[in-house]
Amino acid sequence: MTVLARSLFLSLVLAGLASCTAIAALDRAAEPQNVYELRPPDDIPVARATRSTQLIIEVPTASGAVGTDRILIRPTPSQIAYLPDARWSEPAPVMLQTALVEALLATNAFRFVGRRPLGPSGDVALVSDLTGFETRIAPETGTNSVQIRLTVRLVRERDARILATQTFASSVPIPDTSTPAIIAGFEQTSADVLEQTIRWIITAL
Question: Do 57 and 107 form a contact (C-beta atoms < 8 A)?
């Protein structure tokens, strides 16, 4: 076989391998994923009287790693991975916004709770930063946990004055890194953070 023939043969083999790799990637992408949704906690405080406040819940800001519908795993402090067989029903910040709106509506504490005001502006907006929403893996110690951290601000809309600020965080150990254990950890931590946040909002306003 001449040099030219060998080169042509090698090029065809490499092209075939690349094609197989692309097809395999497409096959993996087409595999069905389990979809999960975090719901508001059951133990929601109910106000004795409805206040006249119109409360707007904005979508929490988040980094690109967190602001997705992928379920974040952090094997090391500087490494990011995602569960291959599961995802959230919405991007994590939007899912958290939905849970907050539903939970605050259930408290009957405000005249109106929504994602957008009824008129040009609302009375108070809840502005937040979702700085932690992940599973942390520590193979050297065998301690795995789900962690959520949310910083919230109540902002008066007419003059953008910050009325109150607070950070809520929760960390729950999980027995292993299976998908059911991770989802159960997220359910527990999100319920804890949401309940803390809701009680604080009602008290602060």
Answer: no
Q: What is the CATH number of domain 36-204?
A: 3.40.50.10610
**Which residues, 6 or more positions from 152, have their beta carbon under 8 angstroms from its beta carbon?**
126, 127, 128, 165, 166, 167, 168, 197, 200, 201
Distances (CA, A) of 180 to 30, 67, 118, 152, 157: 22, 22, 40, 29, 41
pLDDT score of 2: 52
Q: Taking the complete model, does pTM exceed 0.85, yes or no?
A: no
Distance CA 134, CA 124 (A): 29
The pLDDT value recorded for residue 7 is: 47
Domain extents in the chain: 1-31, 36-204
Query: Helices in 32-116 by DSSP H: which ranges?
Result: 92-107
DSSP E strand stretches across the chain: 34-36, 51-57, 61-62, 70-74, 81-88, 110-114, 124-136, 144-156, 161-174
